[in-house]
Amino acid sequence: MAAGEGATTRSLQETPTWAVAIVCFVIISLSILMEHLIHLISKWLKGHKKTALFEAIEKLRSVLMVLGFMSLVLTVAQGYISKICIPNRLANSMLPCRKSKFTKTTKALGYDQMWSDQLHERILAADTESSGYCNSKGMSSLISQNGANQLSIFLFVLAAMQIVYSVVTMGLGRAKMRRWKAWEKETQTVEYQAANDPNRFRFTRQTTFARRHINSCAETSILLWTKCFFQQFFNSVAKVDYLTLRHGFISTHLSTNSSFNFQKYIQRSLEDDFKVVVGISPFMWFIVVIFLLLDVHGWNVYLWVSFLPLTIVLVLGTKLQVIVVKMAHQVKDQNSVIRGAPLVQPNDNLFWFSHPKFVLTLLHYTLFMNAFEAAFFVWVTSQYGIKSCYHEHTGIIVVRMVLAVTVQVLCSYITLPLYALVTQMGSNFKSAALEEHTANAIKQWHAGVKQKQKKQRESSHLGNDSSNSNTTISMDLSSHHRTPTLSETSNFPSKTDQIVEEDREMQEEAGPAIECLP
Question: pLDDT tens, position by position, for the chain (518 residues)?
């Protein structure tokens, strides 16, 4: 045992230089590799105009920087923290496990004898000085150096799980929404245009959208919420819902621009939301502190907390379905006969507190709490073993893990697609998601102007009236040389009659996009 203890407690003074160099080289190489990988991803996203995802990577960098700072603080201050002494009465209160002697605790952990001895030696080596300092005063350490190291590992696992859960949720959700691309292409077909001919009159109740959402089950609030609760599990986003909400969005915000790609807009909108979801706010770190405080043996707080994400996800899905049904009832109440497709009216009042962004906030905190469940399980298992006192009741652990997986599936395949579609029904649209569309229109306009300038230069060499033509060309060149401002761009069709007459196709492509400017 003495030899083992001496080998375990060796300092750098007694460690071979080649061992120190190898460990240092591996750590530095992995760190540089990770940083370079993040840099390459950021460069690729920036080059492909993925501004929202680029900002998400920057948010990821900030999270890693905060983690590094917390780890540094714990490493530097753990010696001082372990020498903060508290009365034994306080040290023995609100324990996460039953108080027992160390030997009994290691047996309860289920380790074999060798692992138990090594663990005992490491704890003794790390905490002998601090525990002796407080024991000499008849008190206990606030937290041991080994406990500070384990806490640092837990914070890292939690942040990693939050990032992984966010990426997986967005990835699975977007995979579920791939079929929307086919629905979007269908809106440009002749069959769709004929079926939604604005000169065609129909009874509102006879439309597919009304038949899906208007029935006797939606007459009272209780029946409505019950119907929507079960409806979210069966074809939560139907084709008719997508096409109807698309029509309402375009009619409200984009006038007659029927060629607008609503599916791409939703995709860019989700990318814009991802930079919010991937981060960890200060309030979330405060929630972690509360969870750690309430992790008292016998309270089973984490069991009840594991039901909270599931509840929020189910309520969110139900609420989003209720919003769609209410829009269907508004269409029916406004007109018993409609022309063309049913026209829903986007409105912030349909959402909680008249704030569609509140749905994203709830979704963010749901993912975080679910990530906390997974992180805590991984951390406890890796640090103390599957049979530790934290896993004293196997049934509770199974229930918590099943709930975590269930929430992940529901959030990815039901709630996220509903959120992506229904939250576009607010009074305002996301201007950031339209920047690419507007920028392309301005580029097309600028390229057209350059082409016309080139034609004018060529025609100037062949002109008969040299003096008059040269004067006219110089005035045109000076007027077309500068880049238009956004305000000029919005009035572009009425201020460039000459360009419109010479190149009508360019105006038809750029004009609808410029109307999208907020």
Answer: 444 444 456 777 788 888 888 988 898 898 889 888 888 888 887 777 777 677 777 777 787 788 888 888 888 888 888 888 888 888 888 888 876 544 334 443 443 444 344 444 444 444 555 566 788 888 888 888 888 888 888 888 888 888 888 888 888 888 888 888 888 888 888 887 777 777 777 777 778 787 787 776 667 788 888 888 888 888 778 888 888 888 888 887 776 666 778 888 888 888 778 877 877 888 888 888 898 888 888 888 888 888 998 999 999 989 998 888 888 888 877 777 777 777 788 888 888 888 888 888 888 888 888 888 888 888 888 888 888 888 878 888 888 889 988 888 888 888 888 888 888 887 777 665 555 555 555 556 656 767 777 777 777 665 555 545 454 444 444 444 444 444 444 444 443 343 334 444 444 444 444 444 33
CA 160 centroid distance within chain: 14
| 60: Cα separation from own chain's centroid | 11
- Please report the DSSP string for 346-412 in residue order: --GGGSGGG-THHHHHHHHHHHHHHHHHHHHHHHHHHHH-TTSGGG--HHHHHHHHHHHHHHHHHII
Rounded to two decimals, the pTM is 0.69
Q: Give the bridge partners for 140, in sequence order.
A: 86
DSSP H helices in 143-238:
145-176, 179-186, 190-195, 208-213, 221-231
DSSP string across 256-296 = T-TT--HHHHHHHHHHHHHHHHTS--HHHHHHHHHHHHT--
